[in-house]
Amino acid sequence: MARKKTTVYVDEDLLRAAKVYAARRDLRDSDVIESALAKFLGLDLFESVWERNRDLDPDDATEIAYEELDAVRAERRARKR
């Protein structure tokens, strides 16, 4: 995946926490932010489903991925209530 430089405004304490997290794990700040954004958007679910089910055909794998995504979305909706 190609990377693109961007500028965003983030709460100072949140950015500091991300930088500390990255430093303690020997990661780049951008890796931490990218990972958090992918998790927030649900994109990490597809990766984990594909990893666990490499032997599935693409149609079955896609169905499982959407079931997982629906489950996460339902959980988030339940937490907002």
Layout of secondary structure:
Blueprint: H1 12-24, H2 29-41, H3 43-52, H4 58-80
Q: Structural class per helix/strand content?
A: mainly alpha
Proportion in helices: over 70%
Query: SSE order in H/E notation?
Result: HHHH
User: Radius of gyration in whole Å, from Cα?
Assistant: 16 Å
What is the 3D shape?
A: extended
Query: What are the segments in which pLDDT stays under 50 over at least 5 consecutive residues?
Result: none
Strand content: under 5%
Quick structural gist:
This protein has helices spanning 12-24, 29-41, 43-52, 58-80. Helix 1 (12-24) packs across helix 2 and helix 3 crosses helix 4 (58-80). With 81 residues, it is mostly helical.
Structure report:
It is a single chain. The protein is mainly α. It folds into two domains: 12-40, no CATH class; 43-80. The protein has four helices and no strands.
Can you tag this structure with a few keywords?
mainly alpha; 81 residues
